[in-house]
Specification:
heterodimer, A: 505 residues, mainly alpha, two-stranded antiparallel ribbon, 21 helices, globular, B: 121 residues, Helix Hairpins, elongated
Chain lengths: 505, 121
């Protein structure tokens, strides 16, 4: 079955505008429709695994028209987006009953999915900006969805920094257009590789790193994330931490650096520096948090650092013309970690939502002893924590192991040491969270807490099963060749990306 | 030179968005940045003796090819299309920003971000 590429964008977009029409009475019908669409997107995403296609919008051939490109890297991201959004939507079915205006929530959710799918499929840099704005504006509104004091404040902060990032990116796009005369990524890449870089393009590259870095919350640009992610409703936190920062930040940065501008040694070091700063600062700041969701948000910064570190290490080795096997191993580790983090971080945020819904608090000090009251939440949370800390059979272990092996083979022993050290910090912070939420004394006022049943439990169980099963992506040859290796190939081939796409025409 | 002034406008907007304490002024700062970028895009396609990029009969030679006179005078239409899109996007985000400012004012009774500090760490 070949799904036409625009379906990934048009289906959620059309659904988004249909959902508010159901009004108050048709709330359950709207929820059902939204769930069907997200599950349908998962099915379609799975069916595109291993494909390489382009689609010319309106049959206008490039560089005149706009094209959509589905390659290994886009496919990986589409898979992550659709799985996480399906789980988050399933979770929202019950969780969002405590808010009013559920149909508006569903509409914004679908718009966010539209934006992210558009970003990862777009082959045109201005189009990428447009989809990025769709996803960002929907997420600003969703962060402030509760309309309470903290939520409005967080939403405003997020929106100011997000808008500045968007303006950086738009300015970069304008500079690229002024210097190359085209907006199609493949043609930009070809023009740069024949004419070389100049001042304007170097400046544009700087703007892109700052802009996408802000969207990905790498450390000097991270200030908005610890406020925005905890303030959103739990399924939205799962979406934001799980996929939004990756689709808008990491994916776009990877595409621009590797496939459009091409990597250099300086660029590799810049990326590695940002990554290591994020890993270390995120982990250390997370250790001191007493708000469950805030702890998870800081840990997201640290984990995105791992993803970017894998990619940066790959970039450095490619630029130094070192061993390509090591470079592709580092990139494989980074991309696998991206996929893993999407699954377990969204599971952890759903767990925190489940705990918050049952107890009415997010403060670790006010909780305790919930293990008996909420056995399923506890079990899934334990699996996710084990994954994120890198305990052997679970998913996080494999990606961290691959990054460490790549760092050692490339003879950057200190990077390997940092990776292991941050991993220990991660273990400590999740032990702390686990200890205060699920173990210890049960406070008096939480005596009649009940486990959340139904769709919330189902969503958490699905993600927990994925957490355990993700290791198979590395171990089983056909899965690795189908999902991960095409993505690694796209990143590794660098500027040949343009050759392939222009040849396709 | 005009490009440098345009960049200056961008930096003024950035300064305003980052340094000012009043929420409305921050929003204005972001708008100034947006206008600077739009201006930059428009200037990319600008020509002193430009004509509208619409092919008239006088610009066609016999083989229905476009003449060089047209190519060397027509303004690049693409940046204008981009600016239109960018304006629509900034309208959307402006509406959301202003409505969040209003809701925040209702809750806190002030626009001063130094007093709106419940989130920490």
């Amino acid at each position: 079955m070949t799904v036409p590429l625009p379906v990934f964008v048009v289906l959620p977009l059309a659904t988004a505008f249909m959902l508010p029409l159901f009004g108050k009475k048709g709330k359950s019908a709207a929820t059902l429709l939204a769930n069907l669409v997200t599950i349908g997107l998962v099915v379609m995403a799975v069916s595109t695994i291993g494909q390489w296609r382009t689609y010319e919008v309106g049959r206008w051939s490039i560089p005149l028209g706009i094209n959509l490109v589905l390659d290994g890297l886009s496919c990986l991201l589409i898979l992550a987006i659709s799985v996480v959004s399906a789980a988050a939507m399933l979770f929202s079915t019950r969780y969002m009953e405590q808010y009013t205006a559920k149909s508006k929530y569903l509409c914004l959710f679908m718009l966010m999915v539209t934006g992210m799918n558009g970003v990862v499929l777009s082959g045109d840099i201005f189009n990428l900006f447009v989809f990025l704005e769709i996803a960002s504006i929907a997420s600003y509104a969703l962060v402030g969805f509760g309309c309470e004091h903290e939520e409005l404040e967080a939403s405003f902060k997020y929106m100011v920094l997000g808008s500045i990032a968007s303006m950086f990116i738009l300015f970069g796009v304008a500079l690229v257009y002024g210097n190359t005369g085209t907006l199609n990524m493949a043609y930009i890449s070809r023009t740069i590789s024949t004419n070389g870089m100049n001042m304007g393009l170097t400046f544009a590259l700087g703007l892109f790193i700052a802009g996408f870095g802000l969207k990905a919350a790498l450390v000097p640009f991270h200030a908005w994330l610890p406020d925005a992610h905890p303030s959103a409703p739990a399924p939205i936190s799962a979406m934001l931490s799980g996929v939004l920062i990756k689709a808008l930040g990491v994916y776009a940065l990877t595409r621009v650096l590797f496939n459009i501008f091409g990597v250099t040694v300086t660029l590799g070091w810049i990326i590695i520096t940002l990554a290591i700063l994020s890993m270390v600062c995120g982990a250390l700041l997370a250790l001191g948090q007493w708000d469950f969701k805030r702890l998870l948000a800081y840990s997201s910064i640290s984990q995105v650092g791992y993803v970017v570190l894998g990619l940066g290490l790959g970039a450095l080795i490619i630029a130094k013309e070192g061993n390509t096997a090591v470079a592709s191993l580092a990139i494989l580790g980074g991309l696998l970690h991206l996929l893993n983090h999407a699954v377990y971080k969204s599971l952890l945020f759903l767990n925190s939502g489940s705990v918050e819904m049952a107890t009415g608090t997010r403060q670790l000090r006010e909780m305790g002893g919930l293990a008996e009251k909420m056995p399923y939440t506890r079990a899934t949370c334990a699996i996710a924590s084990a994954s994120i800390a890198g305990v052997p059979p679970f998913s996080g272990f494999w990606s961290k192991l691959i990054i460490v092996i790549a760092a050692i083979q490339a003879e950057y022993y200190w990077i390997a040491a940092v990776v292991v050290g941050v991993s220990v910090c991660t273990l400590i912070m999740y032990l702390k969270a686990h200890r205060y939420v699920f173990l210890g004394e049960l406070p008096e006022k939480l005596k009649d807490v009940k486990e959340n049943k139904g769709s919330m439990l189902l969503a958490m169980s699905i993600l927990a099963v994925l957490c355990v099963a993700m290791g198979l992506l590395v171990l089983v040859e056909p899965l690795r060749a189908g999902v991960l290796e095409p993505a690694v190939k796209v990143v590794m081939q660098g500027l040949d990306y343009s050759v392939n796409i222009i040849a396709q025409k | 030179m005009p490009y440098a002034l345009c960049f200056l406008l961008f930096v003024i907007g950035l300064y305003c968005a980052v340094v000012k304490k009043n929420m409305v002024k921050i929003v204005v700062g972001i708008l100034v940045m947006e206008y600077a970028v739009n201006l930059f895009l428009i200037m990319l396609g600008y020509r002193w003796d430009g004509i509208a990029p619409i092919v008239d009969r006088e610009y066609l030679t016999e083989g229905n090819n476009i003449t060089n006179a047209f190519l060397s005078h027509a303004v690049d239409p693409l940046p204008q299309a981009l600016v239109l899109t960018a304006i629509v996007i900034s309208l959307g985000s402006l509406a959301l920003m202003i409505s969040i400012c209003i809701r925040t004012y209702e809750k806190y009774g002030t626009f001063d971000i130094t007093e709106i500090r419940r989130l920490k760490g």
